[in-house]
Amino acid sequence: MVKVFTFLICMFFIGTLLSQKEEIKCWKVKKGRFEMVGPQGGSIKIRRKSNVQIERYSRQKVRHKFNIKWIDDCNYELTLKKSRIKSLINHTEVKLLVTVVEVSKFYYSALIKTGVNDKAEKIEIEIK
After folding, report:
1. Residue that wins the pLDDT comparison between 99 and 88
2. pTM for the structure as a whole
């Protein structure tokens, strides 16, 4: 009887440990240097400080500066503030909503969309 009770207690604790979802460590991507492959190829180098993100595109030799507004630990909004492509800034306000969904030692995955009702696109960004 004691063996059965001990077995049941052990199974309960193992089940509890396996069912707990691992916490995403979004604080690891709030600052730093990152790199990703661009939609048309080439690389995008990203430098992120407290509330500013600068992106450099290798193929087009273009640089964009975004303001970052952290909504919570894993969600943030990027607003384009400066670009060499003047038409991006003059006609519309460019805002991107980003949700970090996974963080590992070498990369992080995020869902990015341009509006609340838009379909999100999954991207992977290398941590430098």
Report:
1. 99
2. 0.74
